[in-house]
Design brief:
The complex is a heterodimer of chains A (about 290) and B (about 300). Chain A is mainly α and about 290 residues long. Helices cover about 45% and strands about 5% of the residues of chain A. Chain A has a domain of about 190 residues: 3-Layer(aba) Sandwich (Rossmann fold), CATH 3.40.50. The chains are: A mainly alpha (about 290), B alpha/beta (about 300).
Chain lengths: ~290, ~300
């Protein structure tokens, strides 16, 4: 095994970025073609995931067919906005700034009197308002919405179902955060975006790693063992990973299975969507 | 010298779109003819797309289908072609089939015998497995003086069961053709070419050529069906296991490679593995294992 005798530990998540970029470009090109869409819309937060998808999409179909939609709230950090604008400038793609603060405030003001909203609920509301905005803009632009969730956050359930998890297709959903970083470096995503702490940007100073109590490189190595290699938890722990952490990760995966699937439809009739009515998403007209 | 020019059509079929895929095949046959090819090989389910699910019966064709016959007529002036489609039969079964079109006709059909139904694959749910492993003779543009070429066709997973290419070689194949719809997976710098599936196929194909002392022509598709990204990397390997020509990953290509079938004779003289194979021993041991598993014989 590589790395055993060397000083640097073997990086089992290392990818050939040129090859993975080619895969992602092929995936985007094909799905855009099969939908017949003229443009691709993407919620650009200023974070690394949406930045990477923006660069991949521009490389696949041309920046002139990419519409980056910036959808801050009052709590979003100004530096996120600046980073998003830096990407728009670098790619020379079309962009729209649509604050979701007013609809978010309206949703909250509309709640029963005296009801307070937890940061989690507020975050989910914001994610779903962004989804609503993106899908509406996609109708206007005759476009499709591209997803930007990565494998790490989707596996631990760090995403909002029907919110940021909603898309027509997702080119980076099988890449761990560590791999997202590697690919982003290769594609020339601005360094400050790659190096800043990942954040849902729900309140000032919030970071994924601070809030979740993990660091992505370790999380990814644990996820890789549990998910890709199907190792028993005890084997993962025996490799030296913290027991409590491994058990917690396993629980997060278990509890979020529903977020990674379409809702089940009660099977009543003879042939039912999702069970035994199984067609490709885009079905050609046959003679 | 029994030379033949092969053209491997590494195409990206459109899922379920027969009209578009037939047009693509016609264009590639014309391109191969212009390049002077004797045989053009298309990937698995190139006429229909791979991830068909419930579309499979809707795009299925008899081997007498007029559209297939029209495609076959394009081969009357060469090159011959291997094309792949969903074959329906009189008893209403569906097969992943690969047909040799030559001299204007459908000359031979190989049905996929091993249908992967595990992990990301779900083929057995929609298709029936073939029941025959047969080599055939083909002119491949050669004259009567030059003689025919023994060919054997397998469909993708078929080569992961080494009995299949081994039987094809014993049955007279000098050129083993694999038509594939191989999805990319296992991206890692640890794998050859950065891709686990490319690395494992690379090993398998070289070993298959060397162990059968045959040419191997592997045509894998590119493009995307739903979540699957097909990796391409089509290649031709000599009877010594050396890669002679290789197409890029993920890009459409028409890979040309000249082979000399006399090399097969020389390889088999130098390394008479096929001659020394013990078919009766293999059969006896398989018979014993089958009987034991069925409880007909003591373990």
């Amino acid at each position: 095994m590589k790395g055993e005798s060397g000083s640097a530990p073997h990086d089992e998540l290392a990818i050939d970025p040129e090859m993975v970029a080619a895969m992602c470009r092929s995936f985007i090109t094909s799905h855009v073609a099969s939908t017949g869409a003229e443009r691709v819309l993407l919620g650009l937060s200023g974070g690394i995931d949406s930045a990477l998808v923006a660069y991949l999409t521009a490389a696949a179909i041309g920046a002139d067919r990419l519409v980056a939609v910036l959808m801050p709230t009052a709590g979003s950090s100004p530096s996120s906005r600046a980073d998003a604008e830096a990407i728009v400038n670098d790619l020379s793609c079309q962009s729209e700034l649509i604050s979701i603060e007013a609809p978010l405030a309206a949703l909250i003001a509309n709640l029963p009197a005296g009801e307070s909203v937890t940061p989690l609920r507020r975050g989910n509301m914001a994610a779903r308002l962004r989804m609503t905005t993106l899908y509406d803009r996609s109708a206007l632009h005759r476009g499709v919405v591209v997803g930007t969730g990565n494998k790490s956050e989707m596996l631990i359930g760090y995403s909002t179902i029907f919110g940021d998890a909603a898309s027509a297709f997702n080119p980076i959903g099988d890449l761990y955060k560590t791999q997202v970083r590697e690919l982003s470096r290769h594609l020339g995503v601005p360094t400050q975006i790659i190096e800043k702490a990942p954040s849902a940007d729900l309140w000032p100073g919030q970071t994924d790693e601070g809030e979740g109590g993990f660091d992505y490189p370790t999380l990814d190595r644990v996820l890789y063992r549990i998910v890709d290699r199907r190792l028993p938890l005890e084997d993962v722990i025996a490799e030296g990973f913290d027991r409590e952490f491994v058990l917690r990760v396993s629980e997060m995966i278990r509890r979020s299975e529903f977020k990674r699937q379409m809702p089940p439809i009660a099977k009543v009739g003879g042939r039912s969507s999702g069970s035994d009515y199984l067609y490709p998403r885009r079905r050609p007209k046959l003679d | 010298m029994r030379r033949r020019l092969l053209a491997l059509a590494q195409i990206a079929p459109a899922l379920g779109d027969l009209a578009q895929n037939f047009a693509l095949h016609q264009a590639k046959i014309a391109e191969a003819r212009a390049a002077g090819a004797d045989l053009v090989i298309f990937p698995e389910l190139g006429l229909t797309g791979y991830q068909l699910q419930d579309l499979a019966p809707e795009v299925a064709m008899r081997r007498t289908d007029p559209r297939l016959q029209a495609l076959a007529r394009l081969t009357s002036g060469g090159p011959s072609a291997v094309v792949s489609f969903v074959e329906s039969t009189d008893d209403h079964r569906l097969f992943a089939a690969a047909a040799l079109l030559e001299g204007g006709e459908v000359r031979h059909v190989a049905r996929k015998c091993f249908l992967p139904t595990y992990g990301l694959f779900d083929e057995r749910r929609f298709l029936a497995a073939g029941d025959a492993i047969r080599a055939t003779r083909a002119a491949l543009g050669g004259s009567a003086v030059q003689g025919d070429v023994g060919i054997g066709i397998g469909v993708c997973e078929d080569f992961w069961h080494p009995t299949l290419p081994s039987i094809l070689a014993q049955d007279g194949a000098e050129l083993l053709i694999n038509v594939a719809a191989g999805p990319a997976r296992g991206a890692s710098v640890d794998a050859d070419q950065g891709l686990g599936s490319a690395a494992s196929w690379g090993t398998l194909l070289r070993a298959t050529a060397a162990l059968t002392t045959s040419y191997v022509a592997f045509t894998n598709r590119v493009g995307v069906d739903e979540s699957l990204i097909f990796w391409g990397g089509s290649r031709v390997i000599g009877p010594d296991g050396v890669v002679l020509a290789e197409a890029p990953l993920f890009e459409e290509a028409l890979l040309l490679a000249e082979i000399d079938l006399d090399e097969v004779a020389r390889a088999r003289t130098a390394l008479p593995l096929l001659r020394d194979e013990r078919l009766e021993l293999t059969r006896r041991e398989y018979d014993r294992i089958i009987a034991t598993r069925a409880g007909l014989e003591e373990a």
